[in-house]
Write a structure and sequence with these properties.
223 residues, mainly alpha, 74% helix, globular, cell membrane, Nicotinamide riboside transporter PnuC
Length: 223
């Protein structure tokens, strides 16, 4: 696969609106990560805009299963926005800390529940993508390749990470780093070169976020 096949060919069939929306979704996604590094509540408005753009694009593409997963992301972002708003003294920034053992257990339960839910969505994906019609459709997981299974795994990682970030926990960045690293080769395999570069940027930003939050916690503890 050459650079043309990776970065240009997948977009030849796109119209200008689709390209503009996908670029906007990526930009708002990067802005969301930037604001999260700064512990700024704008992480959620920008993130919600990004996920809603992808909901629209995936719905129009008939990929209703993937669309539902992004709706799930949007709901989790609203949950995080509410928590950060409650815990922010200036209504913009929040303080961060390490997760407790109880929170790790909750995050693990959420991860397992997300695995089950996303797998269930993929099980019914042929039915969902066929406009909720069983005509000519067979349910099951037979249609999944390794990238789809990794998608199930990374979606669950990201959702657990989103929950920990909503709680302002430093470990949330570890989930983002792992998930982003996995997504880089997965997107290349899917022929989404631009998206793979986006996840490379996300990985670098997540590492910076982890270092920044850890440093902020240490400085707060010294005061």
């Amino acid at each position: 696969m050459n650079l043309y096949d990776l970065f240009v060919k997948p977009y030849e069939s796109y119209d200008s609106l689709q390209i503009m929306l996908e670029a906007s979704g990526a930009i708002f996604g990067i802005l969301s990560v930037f604001f999260s590094i700064k512990k700024n509540i704008w992480v959620y408005p920008t993130g919600i805009i990004s996920t809603l753009i992808y909901v629209y694009l995936l719905f129009n593409a008939g990929l209703l299963g993937d669309c539902m997963i992004n709706v799930y992301y949007t709901v989790m972002s609203i949950y995080g926005w509410v928590l950060w708003a409650r815990n922010s003294e200036d209504h913009i920034h929040v303080e961060v800390t390490w997760a407790t053992r109880k929170e790790w257990i909750h995050a693990s339960i959420l991860f397992v529940m997300s695995l089950a839910l996303v797998t269930l969505i993929y099980y019914y994906k042929p039915y969902i993508d066929n406009q909720f019609s069983m005509e000519g459709v067979s349910l099951g997981l037979y249609h999944l390749d390794w990238a789809n299974w990794m998608d199930v795994f990374t979606t669950s990682i990201f959702l657990a990470g989103m929950w920990l970030m909503a709680k302002q926990r430093i470990e949330s960045w570890i989930f983002w780093i792992i998930g982003d690293l996995i997504c880089i080769p997965m997107m290349i395999f899917k022929g989404l070169g631009i998206t793979s570069v986006q996840y490379l940027v996300f990985t670098i930003m997540a590492i910076l976020g982890y270092v920044s939050w850890k440093k902020s916690f240490k400085e707060k503890k010294v005061q």
